[in-house]
Design goal:
By secondary structure, the protein is α/β, with parallel strands linked by helices. About 45% of the residues lie in helices and about 20% in strands. The protein has a single domain, classed as 3-Layer(aba) Sandwich (Rossmann fold), CATH 3.40.50.2300. Helix 1 links the parallel strand 1 and strand 2. The protein is globular, with a radius of gyration of 13 Å. The structure holds magnesium ion (MG). Magnesium ion binds next to loops.
């Protein structure tokens, strides 16, 4: 069965691009527009195998989103990939410290994204 990826980003352009890349690899994608929407989708969708999340978003940013996801037993092991324009070491450390498995800085090469996602789902 196709693995399901939740893409959380307030940029429609990024959401569509990442969704296109992942669909091409045979993944099913679920789209969310910010952290709050991401949580809602996580709670209502039947299954999410991996999350790709932005950091800078309205309503709920990626740091809060990741922390909230990781606080819950049910989602402790869901791989989380950050995809953000924030490439400073302090942001990377914060993201990883909150429980992200991987931190990618935009713009990321599609091949790199796919390789990393497959590795984490492996
Ligand atoms: Mg953003």
């Amino acid at each position: 069965m196709a693995k399901r990826i939740l893409i959380v980003d307030d940029s429609k352009t990024v959401r569509n691009l990442v969704a296109f890349i992942m669909k091409k690899e045979g993944f099913k994608v679920i789209i969310a527009e910010d952290g709050l929407d991401g949580l809602e989708k996580l709670y209502t969708e039947e299954k999410v195998d991996l999350i790709i999340s932005d950091i800078n978003m309205p309503r709920m940013d990626g740091f809060t989103f990741i922390r909230t996801v990781r606080e819950q037993e049910a989602y402790r092991d869901v791989p989380i990939v950050v995809l953000s324009t924030e490439g400073q070491e302090k942001d990377i450390q914060k993201g990883l410290g909150l429980g992200a498995n991987l931190y990618m800085v935009k713009p990321a090469q599609p091949e790199t994204m796919v390789k990393n996602v497959k590795m984490l789902l492996g």
